[in-house]
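Worked problem 6 (solution included).
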Amino acid sequence: MSIHINNLPVELLDNIFSLAISEEHCNEYGSLHTTDLVRPFWDLHSLIPTSNSVHASIMGVCPLWKLVLGSGAVHWTTLVITKASLPSIARVARWLLRSKSAPIDIFVKPLPVQNPTPVQFEEWSILFSTLACHLHHVRSLLVVFPDEGYNCTALYDTIFPPRMMVHVPRLESLRIGCWVPISHLPRGFHAPALKCLEGIGPVAGQIYSIMTRKSRASLISFAFEPTPDSKEMLVSDISASGSLRQLSCIDATLTTA
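Solution. The predicted structure is:
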């Protein structure tokens, strides 16, 4: 006896959607929010999933599928933004709202744009402001900027406001690719669940320097590209951490027990 897919129990349909989404978002390194440095840490691009296209495909089938997918927060916990031309801010906001309070993984990578227009930069600024409103339930955040074109520091000021305490209670993994330092650091960075801090350029080291003691105690993996002035201080400081199991930098590697 055949059964039409729309006659399946909603719970089973929900599980099918979860499998389809996880298949799209998987990558060769396994879990998107893994804290294991199983690849060269500067290869941040390899962790970025391809797209969110499966959601649009499912929701376009029929009202029932749209209802089932739209009402399940677990289906909206991976947000990928990799276009030079952004999806509408309203669409990003809806995605974040559908995730409700579930832990969410966010991946942002603007494509290289030579001398972006004020309108393009304003779009990215609004996006970062939107993301900042949901930092309280972000589990992993990966942001990779191109070598040139974008005012990276201004965008980081949007998501990590200068001279303020940044509180990200559920953040487990923070990966940043930015080739210029943040010009105005936050007053402090409190991420008591943070296990992995990784970055290209000086930003990861800057963030570590303002992390609270509890945040440093939770860290087990740290990979960074030190500046000549910061390398010796950071390696000495970080190696003293009792919880840290792996420390890597671009031209030296130190593993702690």
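Discussion: Strands lie at 78-81, 104-108, 138-144, 165-167, 173-177, 188-190, 196-200, 221-224, 246-249, 252-254.
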